[in-house]
TrEMBL record:
PANTHER family, sorted: UPF0149 PROTEIN YGFB
Species of provenance: Shewanella insulae
Record Pfam families: UPF0149
Biological classification of the source: Bacteria, Pseudomonadati, Pseudomonadota, Gammaproteobacteria, Alteromonadales
GO cellular component, one term: cytosol
Protein name: UPF0149 family protein
Family: Belongs to the UPF0149 family.
Length: 190
C-alpha cells in the first residue's frame, strides 16, 4: 500500500512547524503506533486526546494538522491490522545520511515506548516475549548516532528497523483488540 502524499515526512514536518509543535514526524508516528499497539480505543475520542498529550501538551492543534493526524491514524491502523499493507516505522528516505536515519529510528522507538506505556497500564504483566521486546527497544532507543556510512552499518540499521516493526506487531497482537472486536470504520460499502 503506497503512503498517501499527505503523509510524507516533509508534509507532516511543515504542519507540525506551522502549529509550533517541536516534534519530528517520526516521533508523532511512534507515539501513535505505541498508543495503537497498547490497545487504545479506535474511536477518535479515545486516541486523539492521549496523542495530543504526548505531542502537544494536550492542546488542540490547527484543524489542518488534526486532519493529517486522522489520516495518519487511519493509514497506520490499516497497516498494522492487515499484513498485506506493509506496516513499517516512519523513517527518512533511504537517500538521507545513515546517521539521520538512525537518529530518526531512535526517536521513533522512544516515542513508541512512551505511547505504549501510556495506553497499556498492564505492561509490567505482559507476556515474557513482549517484556523482552520492550527491553530490547529501550536499548535501541539509546543507540549511538555516530555511525559509519558503510554496508555493515546499513545492514545493522535495516535489522533494527525490522526489529522495531516486528516488536510493534507483537505488541499489537498482545494488546490490540481481538479481530472480532474491530469494527469496519469505513462508511463506504464495498
Amino acid at each position: 500500500m503506497a503512503t498517501p502524499p499527505s503523509l510524507r515526512i516533509e508534509i507532516l514536518f511543515a504542519e507540525l512547524n506551522a502549529a509550533d509543535i517541536a516534534q519530528h514526524p517520526v516521533e508523532v508516528h511512534g507515539s501513535l503506533v505505541g498508543l495503537i499497539c497498547g490497545g487504545v480505543g479506535q474511536a477518535k475520542s479515545e486516541w486523539i486526546k492521549p496523542l495530543l498529550e504526548l505531542i502537544n501538551d494536550g492542546q488542540l492543534p490547527p484543524p489542518s494538522l488534526v486532519q493529517l493526524l486522522e489520516e495518519l491514524y487511519q493509514d497506520t491502523l490499516a497497516r498494522i491490522t492487515d499484513a498485506d499493507f506493509g506496516f513499517t516505522p516512519m523513517a527518512p528516505e533511504e537517500e538521507e545520511p545513515l546517521t539521520k536515519r538512525v537518529e530518526a529510528l531512535s526517536l521513533w522507538v522512544q516515542s513508541f515506548l512512551t505511547g505504549i506505556a501510556m495506553a497499556q497500564p498492564r505492561l509490567n504483566r505482559a507476556s515474557s516475549d513482549v517484556k523482552e521486546v520492550i527491553q530490547d527497544l529501550a536499548e535501541i532507543a539509546q543507540v549511538e548516532f555516530d555511525v559509519a556510512e558503510d554496508e555493515e552499518s546499513e545492514a545493522a540499521y535495516i535489522e533494527l528497523m525490522e526489529f522495531a516493526r516486528m516488536a510493534a506487531l507483537l505488541c499489537y497482537a498482545e494488546f490490540g483488540p481481538e479481530p472480532s472486536e474491530i469494527k469496519d470504520q469505513d462508511p463506504m460499502i464495498h
